[in-house]
Amino acid sequence: MSIERTLAIIKPDAMEAGHAGDIIRIFEANHFKIIAARLVNLSKQEAEGFYAVHHSKEFFASLTAFMSSGPALVMVLEGEDIIARLREVMGATNPAHAAPGTIRKLYATNVERNAVHGSDAPETAAFEIAYFFPGMESV
Ligand code: ATP
Ligand code: MG
After folding, report:
1. Which pLDDT value is given to residue 2?
2. Ligand 1 test: best mutation among 58, 63, 119, most atoms within 8 Å of CB?
3. Does ligand 1 come within 6 angstroms of the Cβ of 92?
4. Phi and psi of 116, rounded to 5°?
5. Domains along the chain with CATH numbers
6. CA 125 → CA 22, 70, 84, 107, distances in Å?
7. How many CB atoms lie within 10 A of CB 37?
8. How many CA atoms lie less than 13 Å away from 13 in the CB half-sphere?
9. Is the shortest distance between the CB of 59 and ligand 1 below 6 Å?
10. Which residues surround ligand 2, an ion (CB under 5 A)?
């Protein structure tokens, strides 16, 4: 176990619904340290660049339209084993399968409008942190 950094996003659905404060409260309750934050309004092109790994998926157009539909709060979180711990606190991608008490169980609407993003591995965390915070160290 070591100190890691990960990229979290409070997605446009959760921002619109007014859940940003509740989600940050959950991060803080879990002792996730917020070391950088930006409010962004992604263009379609910026959302496509961020989710490039999903470009061949049938939901890509819809996902990137959603992610560019309004403000999103992008944060770098730091802590021990933070990548896996954030994923655990977020819950399953589809809220129908998310465990009780997870952010997605509490605040997601469906598999696409699922309230939060968290990097899924050290390599993706490095790419995603650099995408929004150029020059920032990812570890
Ligand atoms: P994220 O990458 O946002 O943290 P994740 O790693 O749990 O979520 P991915 O498989 O990477 O899930 O999918 C990226 C995002 O694409 C999901 O969070 C969701 O918003 C959307 N998505 C995933 N699967 C579907 C689907 N079947 N239909 C519509 N949207 C989807
Ligand atoms: Mg993912």
Report:
1. 87
2. 63
3. no
4. -145, 155
5. 3-10+18-41+72-130 (3.30.70.141)
6. 23, 23, 11, 23
7. 15
8. 19
9. yes
10. 120
The C-alpha atoms of residue 134 and residue 130 are separated, in whole angstroms, by 5
The rounded distance, in Å, linking the Cα atoms of 112 and 95 is 9
Q: Tokens standing for 51? A: 């989710």
Two tokens, residue 41: 């309004």
pLDDT averaged over 10-residue windows placed end to end, the chain, 139 residues = 94 98 98 98 98 98 98 98 98 98 98 98 97 92
Q: Which of 82, 75, 76, 73 is nearest to 31 (CA)?
A: 82
